[in-house]
Amino acid sequence: MSKDFKNGVELGLANDSGLEIEIIPELINQGQIQNVSDAINKLCSYHDVDILTGIVSSLAIRELLDTINAKRIPFIFNNVGEYVPSKRIDSPYLFHNSLHLWRSQWAMGKWAQEQYGGTPAICFSIYDGGYHLHEAFRIGTLAGGASTAQINMLPLVPNQVDTSALIQLIEQQKPAHVHAVLCGVDGKDFIKRYKEAGFLGKIPLTACPFLVEDGLTSDIEDLVNNIPNSISWSYTLKSMENEAFIDVYEKSYIRKPSVFSVLGYESGLAIIHALSTAEAESIALEKTLTDTRIRGPRGMVVLGNTSASDEVGVYFRKPYTEEKSPVNKVISTLQSVNREDAQMALVAENGISGWQNPYLCI
């Protein structure tokens, strides 16, 4: 993850600007609040950097807002968008570049409800339930016409992978469709049990994109075909900017880019533009970032404040098997919302249920 992000930043900075730029890396481990705080203090006080960027959860940023404002150094923080951005983290020094996964979950909920109708069931683990993703999907189903939804959280059993409790709930509830906010070994176990129970192909299933993401479906390749999902960037997105980015990235690093490569690349492009503008016009760097608009692999990205990247599209996908491995194909663009939506604003400012942690949703 960190290597992909660093590669992306370097590639973005490589766009010709005539500026000499030095990158100073600082390890933050898994993004724990204290690690991020220590890194910010060292980079600003000892290295005297001009701008900060990295992969940091919005939850950690919220706890570090006073530190960031005191340093008065612009900070482009990147993440997958596991939380709806709270207005409590608005700051003239903070710029959010994100996949805004909560937006794609809302869009997926609305699409699924309009497609299948009835009462949906949303299944997730305690860990995955610590984010806003299941709630965003639920609110999306309401926008699509649902009157209620079944909320199924997997009981926490230490050192054990067993999603059979979710399967039992589905058997009892008989929902019109199911959405899985699961990833990793829990997600794979759920998909296998879903098929064994006879639900696959019978009860429509949608999923959080990382459950069916290209390269993450070992052991379940034959089970994820045609499972609808949505995200704001995909390797197969057909655009001149995306295809050019993929070409130069793969030639430079001999590997496929990930979503973190894209976030890094966009941040690098934004930094180049902001530094060039600040030097040419003799204005503060945070002011140039506020007005910066870049066109990257997933379209137009605006870093004006913590919610400006809401302008990025949400792409509807389904995986299809190619040469034994499923590949997600972009089918269409979905309607979504931003944090100004009344219901999403409530989600952003209210408490968080489930597993409480500052780590990234991956």
Provide a compact summary of the structure.
By secondary structure, the chain is an alpha/beta fold. The chain has two domains: about 1-100 and about 240-310, 3-Layer(aba) Sandwich (Rossmann fold); about 100-230 and about 315-350, Response regulator (Rossmann fold). It has twelve helices and twelve strands.
Strand content: 15-25%
SSE pattern: HHEHHEEHEHEHEHEEHHHEEEEH
Strand order of the largest sheet: 5-4-6-7
Shape: globular
CATH topology of the largest domain: Rossmann fold
Q: On the 0-100 scale, what is the average pLDDT?
A: 90
Structural class: alpha/beta
Domain tally? 2
- Rg (C-alpha, Å): 20 Å
Number of strands: 12
Classify the helix fraction into a percent range. 25-40%
| First-to-last CA distance | 9 Å
Please name the fourth-level CATH homologous superfamily of the largest domain. Answer: Response regulator
The CATH class of the largest domain turns out to be Alpha Beta
Question: Could you give a short account of the major beta sheet?
Answer: 4 strands, parallel
- Report the total helices: 12
Q: Please name the CATH architecture of the largest domain.
A: 3-Layer(aba) Sandwich
Keywords: Signal
InterPro entries: BCAA_transport, Leu-bd, Peripla_BP_I
Protein name: ABC-type branched-chain amino acid transport system protein
Domain Leucine-binding protein: 19-303
